[in-house]
Protein 1
Amino acid sequence: MKIIKVHDYAEVSLNAGEMILEKVKQQSKLVIGLATGGTPIGTYQCQCLIEDFKRNQTSYKHVHTINLDEYVGLNVEDRHSYAYYMRTRLFNHLDLPHEQTHIPNGVASDLVKECHRYESVITSLGGVDLQLLGIGENGHIGFNEPGTSFLSKTSVVELSPLTRKANARYFNSLDEVPSHAISMGISTIMQCRQIILLASGEKKAKILQQLLSGQVSEQVPASILKKHHDVTIIADQAALENYHGDYLVGF
Ligand code: PGA
């Protein structure tokens, strides 16, 4: 695991964008795992992705995307769905073919079957080359909340009260935040060939400190990433204010 410590959110976004853009240019076929939430917004908008496309028309026709999760009960037209988020914040701004973008279907009539279908999509694409992750204040990755088995595959998960509260800022009220989601599993995430985890702001300082200095434990889902062979954490000073340990590079 390596940590790139940068000054602020803009630099987090730029560093992540650069890593993604490099892969897009390097590989003739690429599967990128994408995340939603507040943190990756800057990465998508930065001069390396949407802005780069506007200027240089870097093509994404050879890219497939796999999203980490989707709320149960929200359809693709719902502006709170992650399908809507991805279309408006990234996909509509690139030349990425729509059929190459994959997000779990949160309104599937059989959600368990949908989870199996999603796993087969990932397998049929040959796995994820580069997975972007955020981290919840409780250490979740995807929507895999504390206590989730490290062996989990894509499944229907219940959102913790802390996660619902953190995400309520996007809804009119806490009551509107869905109680469940479909989330890529932890073992599915661990199979991704390369992982970038983004963290910004003082709200993430406590969990980053716990992740980096504590034990690998299912109570801190992101802690399993210490056992992955290619993880880069890109975090700003505020998120790393409590950490002065061994993994740091740069800065
Ligand atoms: P955030 O969410 O980027 O909105 O802080 C991160 C997460 O919950 O994984």
Protein 2
Amino acid sequence: MEGCIFCKIASGEVQGLRVFEDEQTLAFMDIAKDVDGHILVIPKKHVKSILDCDSETLFAVAHTMKTVSNHLTENCGYEGVNLLNASGERAGQSVQHLHIHIIPRKRGDGIDAWPKFNGAKEDLKEIYARVKL
Ligand code: 5GP
Ligand code: ZN
């Protein structure tokens, strides 16, 4: 999509540090410098988020997520990964092209990758009745 930075990285128009790619997906280094080894996995075609992603593309993204995660833990000295995703601006998505963050983890790395929640305010059973499929 015109103007989308991740489409430009996928096509090669903008340089990215490409960790792994296949026909449908790309994994590349995040530029944030917030944590060592921060990697993003994207579909090469423009999809806004998981909320409007077709199943085949989502499967391809998940497969690459696993390939890269296994590589990090089997060959790169990491012991686990956190996989993070924001879908929708209200959820904190800042780039409107589907991406999964891979945060590689090691014992003693001091990273707290789990969000601090504010505490539930609604009754559990009322929410359950609303969200149950
Ligand atoms: P979000 O907040 O949407 O979940 O994450 C967007 C991520 O994209 C951020 O971690 C940000 O650092 C990364 N990002 C934004 N622009 C670029 C860019 O031009 N190149 C790379 N490699 N990462 C980017
Ligand atoms: Zn895009």
